[in-house]
Amino acid sequence: MSGAGAPDFFYREAQRLGYVARSAFKLLQIQKQYKLIKPGSAILDLGCAPGAWLQVACQSLGPLKNGGAVVGIDLKKVKVPSLHCDSRVQTVSADVMKLPKQQVMELSPQKKGFSVILSDMCPLVSGITTKDAALSFELGMRALDLAVGRAANLSDDNFQSEGESYTSGPDDNGVLLSRGHLVIKLLESEDIKELCQTCKSLFKKASWLRPKATRSSSREIYLICQDLQS
Fold first, then answer.
1. What are 43-67's pLDDT values in tens digits?
2. In angstroms, how far apart are the furthest CA atoms of the chain?
3. What are the C-alpha distances in Å from 1 to residues 14, 31, 50, 154?
4. Domains in the chain, please, with CATH?
5. Catalytic amino acids?
6. HEC per residue, the chain
7. pTM given for the model
8. Which of the chain's ends, N or C, has fewer CB atoms near its CB within 10 Å?
9. Which among 186, 159, 216 has a CA at the least distance from the CA of 4?
10. What is the pLDDT of residues 151-162, one digit of tens each?
11. 229 in the Ramachandran plot: left (φ > 0), alpha (ψ -120 to 50) or beta?
12. Which residues, 6+ apart, have CB-to-CB distance to 162 below 8 Å?
């Protein structure tokens, strides 16, 4: 959140440029380095509050005539920021952990899926390192499962307790299009190495990035997965 800790360069720059949070600069760096968002992209932003990534995602689509769409989902009701966003941006208040994939798919343009999925989801931090890392890993696994479905080789009991059925059907498929990209925020732990290996088998490339805008006290790191293989 933009108000966490003492105001720094990124916090002040966010205010100056009209971003609702300093986290905008994390996605700006990701976009500059990897160019994941292209004109016409359909983008899903998981954990979109307070809306800074919605702003950067919409900006990255270019002018309105280029088309594209940005859909943000968060537990909180998120108002689309007035600056840097246009009619291509919409938000939905829902629990990502319980939202069936088919409902997420229906939010995409022509209900065909998304070309980029961004997960900036973060658990309510307790201060207990192992607990927070485990919760973060669970959110990361959920983002991967939403993206690629059964291809992620997730065990059947991973999320069944969260209320989603894993019997065969349309929910077996992910909502990320072939050649699509996935970004997952995680808290550093031993478990995330396994997640990276899984992603390397599914995507053409998977790499780690710690954006410059990340606070020095934070254990946040981003897994950048490029080009989902068919």
1. 999 999 999 999 999 999 999 999 9
2. 50
3. 11, 20, 8, 31
4. 25-228 (3.40.50.150)
5. 185
6. CCCCCCCCHHHHHHHHHCCCCCCHHHHHHHHHHHCCCCCCCEEEEECCCCCHHHHHHHHHHCCHHHCCEEEEEECCCCCCCCCCCCCCEEEEECCCCCCCHHHHHCCCHHHCCEEEEEECCCCCCCCCHHHHHHHHHHHHHHHHHHHHEHHHCCCCCCCHHHCCCCCCCHHHECCEEEEEEEEEEEECCCHHHHHHHHHHHHEEEEEEECCCCCCCCCCEEEEEEEEECC
7. 0.89
8. C
9. 216
10. 676 544 444 434
11. beta
12. 97, 98
Amino acid at 95: D
Residue type, 154: L
- Among the residue ranges 1-10, 67-76, 161-170, the one predicted with the least confidence is 161-170
Going by DSSP bridges, is the β-strand pair 42-46/220-228 parallel, antiparallel, or unpaired? unpaired
Question: Given the structure tokens 């065990």, which residue do they identify?
Answer: 155
Amino acid at site 50:
P
Q: Which residue has the tokens 């992603």?
A: 199
Residue 71 β-bridge partners: 44, 90
User: What residue has token string 């919760």?
Assistant: 135
Could you give the CA distance from residue 99 to residue 145 in angstroms, rounded to a whole number? Answer: 12
User: Average pLDDT, stretch 155-184?
Assistant: 65
